[in-house]
Structures are given as structure tokens and as C-alpha cells.
């Protein structure tokens, strides 16, 4: 199912715990790299003690963890999601509540700073760094977060900066972190794109505020928006994201208020009162258990869990564990599609299968083997099922059975002739028309 479900929501902070320690990439810590069979390091305590690996020169580029590059990618995705969620939450707080089914729920304005006005239309990321009378403020703010991670490291000591923010340290930490969320999100944008976004989104006309308002941090300024970007010389996009996310999600850290704000925003961002579409079992479970969160659902080739699936998927598990994804990539593009499938569609299916992580594919197969049928009788929202007449992975009989068990008074089963299990690749035009028609029907 394409919709975010509760397990993902609960793991926004926990998924990044494994190996979420930070280090500098230098010769002094090259011995930290783990082999593929090594266990990730344990979660760091707060504050972290000083260590030889942390005592690095100031011009070393910060890249996050040396041992587990995937953790940097996870952290980057989390920061981007938080950026979207915080902005959406702030924007909705200044817009009238909408009753349209395709709108996210509005919420009350969160406390962004001691001077925040809930009626202010400014973006949550529209801040002003120039209020701090120091040079290279953005880079010094980044170094501040590095000191927060490792307060005993003398490499980034900056007494002048610490003194400048001392009267409003808590507000600085929260607003600076949001500024860096925005920085990560706009990391690869060209100068023209950034300036356009700043004019249209991040720098709307501001209401008058006292000149002494130091509770805000600005978007990048002239010298930092061109090729001579001091922050990019000090860190990478993923390294910055991992530093921010590690600090934010640490329960012993000083950012508890912002952590709660981000979690609320993420829950509202992913738990939508909306039309939801997706494939397989999870979509039906969400429609059955969380119908209060959606107004309609579309199930594309959903599997009806039953014991007859066990030998099929057990065989796949054995094949992948023995030979990897290659055998499935050689057979499924022909065996799991219908007669409408084009050579291009089959080629795309093959590439998708070869790109799968074997361990992840095996895990998904085990989930299907052990899955229990959703309580289809609890599904009361309008629902559309798209079933391939030649689907062998989610046979038509199972789709008909779940359709009959659903209590919804607005339900429809569309049987797509000549289509197997890869509906969106085999007959994308037909899928699009059916979804569009269903959407207009339920308005």
C-alpha cells in the first residue's frame, strides 16, 4: 500500500538508531569501518565522550558515519519528510479549514519561537541569520551542532558565537535546526531556483517585528548561495542530514520540544483523510482498520491471504536464498503477466526485480506466507478493486472473495482482461482511466 501505515510512523525516530553514531572521515578513524558481517555500533550516550576519532582538524569534511552509508540515506529521507511535514503544518495553520476530500487536515499553529504569531503567514523556514552580528554565521551554526554532538571536542570551539546566542539558546537550536532542514531540502537547487523559491515561499512579505527579535535563522545569503558555499565545503548533504537527525531523535538531547513538534507534523502528513491507492495486503488492512483516516481506497491486484500461497512463495524464498534474484528476473516477466504486456513492460519488470535486495524480497515473501486476511467486513469506505484476469500472484478468485466480504455500499470490482499482476506496467492507460473515473464518482 502506498499510504503510510502506523508501523512506519512509529519508526520515524527508531529506524535510524542502528549505527546512528557520527564520525569524521579521516585517517584517524578509518579503523571504524565495519565489515558486511559486523554488528552496528551501539547508540551513543548523551553527551558523547571525546575520542581520538572525533578530534579532527576543522577543515575535514563531515560526511556522517563511515561504517554504514545506508544510515546517511535513511537520515536524509527523514529530514526531507520532516521538512515537508513542518511546512505543510505551518501553512495549514494559516489557511481556512477545507472540507475537500483531497486536502490534508488542518491543525493549530505550533510554537516556532518565543515571538511566533499564529496569524503570521511566514513560512516556518523563513528566518533571518543577519540578526547575529558575526561573519560566516551559517557555518558557525553548523559547527555549533557539531559541538552539541561532541561537546568535548575543541576543534569547533567558538566562544563568540556561543555568547551571541546565549540569551535565546533554546529558540536558536529549534529554529536553526529547521533552517538546516530547509538547507538539506534545497541542497542541489540552482541559484535561480533557490531565489525563486525564496521569493515565492520562504520570503513572503513579513509583518513588522521588533529589531531585537533574534529568534530566527535565515535562508542562505548571497555568498552562500553561489559556488563558494562554505557549508558545502564543511559537510555533505547526507552528512548534515545525519547530524541533524541524530541530534533530533536522541531522547536524552536538548531538542525534545522540536522532536515532539516534528512527530506531530509527520503523523498529520502521513495519516491523511484522503483517497488512498496501493497494491497487495497492506492497503486492505488500512482500509479495514483505519477507515477514519481515508475517504476511499483503491486496491490494485490485492492478495487474499490463504494457505494456497504458501508453497508458491516458499519456493521463491528457496530460489532467492540459493541463487539470488536472477532466476526470478528470468522467469517472472513472462510468467506473471497477461497477454497485453508489451516487451517494454517485461523489460521494466525484469529491471525492477534485479534491483531488489534479495534479503528484502525474501522478507516480503515471508510476510505474505504468514499474513492473516484483513477484516474485510469492516471496510465501509468507497472502494475500487482492480483485478487482472490473468493474475497468478493475486488470483481473480481471491479478489472476488474479498469483494463479497466487504460491507461498503460503494464498492466496485473491475476485471482487466489480458492483464496479469503488473497492472500499472501492462495496462497503464486503462489503470489511469479507471482510477480517474472512480475519483470523480466519489466526489
From TrEMBL:
Family matches, as Pfam families: Hydrolase_4 (PF12146)
Low complexity compositional bias, start-end: 94-114
Domain Serine aminopeptidase S33: 286-422
Region named Disordered: 30-53, 87-124
Biased composition (Pro residues): 38-50
Protein name from the UniProt record: Serine aminopeptidase S33 domain-containing protein
Organism: Pyrenophora teres f. teres (strain 0-1)
